[in-house]
Amino acid sequence: MDGWLGVLIMLVLGVGFAAVMIGLSVLLGPKNPTPEKLAPYECGMPAVGDARERHSVKFYLVAMIFLLFDIEIAFLYPWAVALRDLGWPGLMQIVTFFMILSVGYLYVWRKGALDWAPAARARNALRRGPRKAA
Amino acid sequence: MTGEAVAFYALSAMLVVSALAVVLSKNLFHAVLWLALALTGTAGIFLLLDAEFLAAVQLLLYAGGVVTIVVFAIVVTERLVGETITQTNRRIAGGALVCGALLWLLITTVLERPLATERPIMPDDLTKAIGESVLTRFVLPFELLAVLMLAALLGAIYFARPEE
Q: B38, B67, B88 — which closes off a domain?
């Protein structure tokens, strides 16, 4: 547990600084609210609709892919620390682990889950093009 | 009281408060934010146990990844966005029975043996020990984990497949 005092001091200073600044702003700042100031997003145009609307399910997919490859990366650390003792067998095993997940990566890529709107549209247009002509 | 004990009690208080807030907040999004704090507190407990790798993984995967997934799950689900959830169930009697049984089980188990006051001796370098055991003794579960993650990925793609 040695060596973490610095982290603790950093945490306390960070949280404390933010709290003091927000607190001072609440206590000392002048309050003169107008409807424009209270709008969640002020850009000159009146806001339309609700910010809490349903978003594309692709965001969820991106989060899922991120988490899975995050786990994959996390397993690299203990292997890297024990690299010398594990030798070639360890390398083969971690490569196997990566190969299995690479199948998923290739699948995600080929399925077009990594393409965002313009690329996906272009791909669909390409796919549909010949069918329409026929 | 040593610094370690002070840190433990502070972290425990934070954990209990944030875990209660997760199940008591009416706003689903606030519950997720409290969950992030609870998971970060768990990372602190791991740090106190000299398990730096577990603490880092806890922050990276749980406080980072899982919380992101839950937030995105809320954002992409129309029914859940901005939803106020009720935290009480109508079947209070059954819930109380299950909770009481669980509490009784936990208390009797804890009282059966004296609590360990000394921390068991850990390997010098826990990260290295984890790496060695994962890639030698537990190599089959480790490779199966890759298959499981592959299945999770394919399942996610299937359910959230882009509109054809």
A: B88
CB within 8 Å of chain B, chain A residues 21-80 = 50, 52-68, 70-72, 74-75, 77-80
**Residue-number span of the structural domain to which B153 is assigned:** 123-164
CB spacing of A79 vs B65 below 8 angstroms:
no
One domain for residues B131 and B64: no
Distance between A64 CA and the closest CA of chain B, angstroms: 6
The residues facing B84 across adjacent strands are B27
Supply φ then ψ for residue A114, to 5 degrees. -90, -10
pLDDT in tens, B21-47: 998 888 888 889 999 999 999 999 988
- Domain enclosing residue A88, as ranges: 57-115
Among A74, A97, A101, beta carbon nearest to B57: A74
In terms of Cβ atoms closer than 10 Å to its own Cβ (0-12, 13-18, 19+), residue B127 is buried
Q: Does residue A26 belong to any structural domain of this protein?
A: no
The answer to whether B50 and A1 have CB atoms below 8 angstroms apart is yes
ipTM score of the complex?
0.73
